[in-house]
Amino acid sequence: MRYSDAFPDDEETPLVQIEQKQPVFPNVTKQEYIAVLQAERETLLKDYYKPQSEGTGHYNTAASVLEFRITELSRGL
Fold first, then answer.
1. Structural contact between residues 69 and 36, judged by C-beta atoms closer than 8 angstroms
2. For residue 54, what are the CA distances in angstroms to 35, 51, 59, 62?
3. Residue 31 CA to chain centroid, in angstroms?
4. Residue from 31, 29, 26 nearest 74 by CA
5. What angle do CA 26, 40, 71 make, to 5 degrees?
6. What's the pLDDT score for residue 55?
7. pTM of the entire structure?
8. Residue 7 pLDDT class (50, 70, 90 cuts)
9. Which of 7, 40, 49, 54 is close enough to 59 for a disulfide, judged by CB 3.0 to 4.6 Å?
């Protein structure tokens, strides 16, 4: 017996309807967006991240995520 035989309507009717939304900031260029992400990363590292303190790993993670996104967007230019 196949899954589709037991649940025939699963493939026809999605559980969740996802609507396409308009961009939040439609007039922002990719370069401007990258500049904002870079500023956020610099501020995070300068003002919040303190490597000698305990419990700052989440700042390091946030900086890494920002850096990855910046790199990803830069490659797509």
1. no
2. 30, 8, 11, 16
3. 17
4. 31
5. 75
6. 73
7. 0.60
8. low
9. 49
Token look-up 């260029």 returns 29
* DSSP assignment letter at 13: S
The 3-state secondary structure of 22-37, one letter per residue: CCCCCCCCHHHHHHHH
Count the Cβ atoms, other than its own, within 10 Å of residue 33: 14
Contact status, residue 66 vs residue 41, Cβ threshold 8 Å: yes
pLDDT in tens, 10-61: 556 666 777 777 767 678 888 999 999 999 999 988 888 777 777 777 888 8
The C-alpha atoms of residue 9 and residue 43 are separated, in whole angstroms, by: 51
Q: Is 28 helix (H, G, I), strand (E, B) or coil?
A: coil
